[in-house]
Write a structure and sequence with these properties.
- There is one protein chain.
- This protein is an alpha/beta fold.
- Helices cover 38% and strands 19% of the residues.
- It has seven helices and nine strands.
- It has helices at residues 29-40, 52-62, 109-130, 156-176, 192-198, 202-212, 221-233, and strands at residues 20-24, 44-48, 65-67, 70-72, 78-80, 89-94, 134-145, 180-186, 241-244.
- It has a seven-stranded parallel beta sheet with strand order 3-2-1-6-7-8-9, with helices on both faces.
- Helix 3 links the parallel strand 6 (89-94) and strand 7 (134-145).
- Helix 1 crosses helix 7 and helix 3 packs parallel to helix 4 (156-176).
């Protein structure tokens, strides 16, 4: 008889091996980082975006397919053109769009309307187009925010849209079942979009978050990408909203 230890294999199959992931808004920020993560987990990646040069560079980096499948359509909402995509698709990640900040009563009516509806209508457009393209138990993953958790001046429009998004996601999960539908609600994420919004105030905001967040660091695109790929690969997840903010809601920052 021997007491020799039993060898334990540490080999892990890639979580998305052989699957196809479409990233809408995949040429920068959270979208690009999610595409990188999905590619590392064995997926084939299709990137969409409106900036042709940025899209080209991202596609070259990831050996991904490019698809100029995002265009402005009715009501000013980005429309996603699915007919040109290969079939089947396993997952669609949507990071396109930006929040609308500003005092609601001072905002032009058209801008306020876009802020209240743009993300919601985009989700409907994606769900409508992907319904017969995504194979179960594949998923749709949308990006939202945590802005409504704590009311603040100047966030009324963005916060109102944030409140509505989880309800829409839950209903889409029922409607599209067994395709799964989920929402990632992010706090501050250090992306090029954050830089464009904050401008010269970006470094100050980073310092504030490092000092006050429970995780003592700023949330980055790779953090969100890791969550997105987990949602794609875990087939028990649907109809839910997953916060990722480093504990920002727990402190005054």
């Amino acid at each position: 008889m021997t007491n020799a230890p039993t060898a334990v294999s540490t080999h892990r199959e890639p979580e998305l091996l052989g699957q196809t992931v479409v990233v809408i808004g995949g040429s920068a920020g959270i979208g690009l980082e999610t595409a990188r993560r999905a590619r590392a987990e064995g997926a084939s990646v299709i990137l969409t975006g409106r900036n042709p040069e940025r899209l080209k560079q991202a596609a070259l980096e990831l050996d991904a397919r490019r698809h100029r499948g995002v265009r402005r359509q009715r009501f000013g909402v980005p429309a996603v053109v699915f007919p040109g995509f290969p079939t089947p698709i396993d997952h669609v990640m949507v990071t396109a769009g930006a929040p609308h900040y500003g005092p609601p009563l001072e905002m032009a009516p058209e801008e306020a309307r876009r802020g209240l509806t743009e993300h919601l209508l985009l989700a409907l457009e994606v769900a409508r187009g992907a319904a017969d393209k995504v194979r179960p138990p594949g998923s749709l993953v949308f990006m939202g925010g945590t802005g409504a958790r704590r009311p603040r001046a100047g966030l009324g429009i963005a916060s109102t849209a944030t409140v509505a998004f989880p309800t829409l996601i839950a209903n889409l999960a029922l409607k599209l079942a067994p395709i799964r539908v989920n929402l990632i609600a992010a706090g501050f994420v250090d992306t090029p979009l954050s830089s464009s919004i904050l401008g010269d105030g970006l470094d100050k905001r980073r310092d504030e978050l490092r000092a006050t967040l429970p995780i003592r660091r700023v949330v980055g695109p790779a953090d969100v990408a890791a969550l997105a790929v987990h949602i794609m690969s875990n087939t028990a997840l649907t109809g839910a909203t997953y916060d990722i903010d480093g504990g920002q809601q727990l402190v005054s920052c």
